[in-house]
Amino acid sequence: MIFLILLLTLTVTSPSTLAARKAKRQNDFWGSWGEWGECSRSCGGGISLRQRPCYSRRTDGGSSCIGPAESYRSCNIQDCPEGSRDFRAEQCAEFDGTEFQGKKYKWLPYYG
């Protein structure tokens, strides 16, 4: 008798639980992937990014989209021309002339 009641309880609650889970999954869905962004480097290997939005009908501000919102890929993997400035040197040069503690500096990469 107890087994029969337990079985009926499981049978009655399982469909509603499954329906609730299915409804929750249907409320959140991914939009289409956007275009690939600009490559981070012109040569020597860079990274490009694309994103996709998660659309949610939930009212609590959360979302249940499964999977990543961002995707990355390698780009411009060809070697840089000989004599090109090193990538670290390029990064440092962006701060040349920027004031730091009241003085302006020429920044050089550190290869420790």
UniProtKB/TrEMBL annotation:
Q: Where in the cell is it found?
A: Secreted
InterPro entries registered for this protein in UniProt: ADAMTS_ADAMTS-like (IPR050439), TSP1_rpt (IPR000884), TSP1_rpt_sf (IPR036383)
Could you list this entry's UniProt keywords, alphabetically sorted: Disulfide bond, Secreted, Signal
| GO annotation, cellular component aspect | extracellular matrix; extracellular region
Q: Which Gene3D superfamilies match?
A: Thrombospondin type-1 (TSP1) repeat (2.20.100.10)
Query: What span is annotated as the signal peptide, if there is one?
Result: 1-19
The domain of life for this entry's organism is: Eukaryota
- What is this protein identified as? ADAMTS cysteine-rich domain-containing protein
Organism annotation: Micrurus spixii (Amazon coral snake)
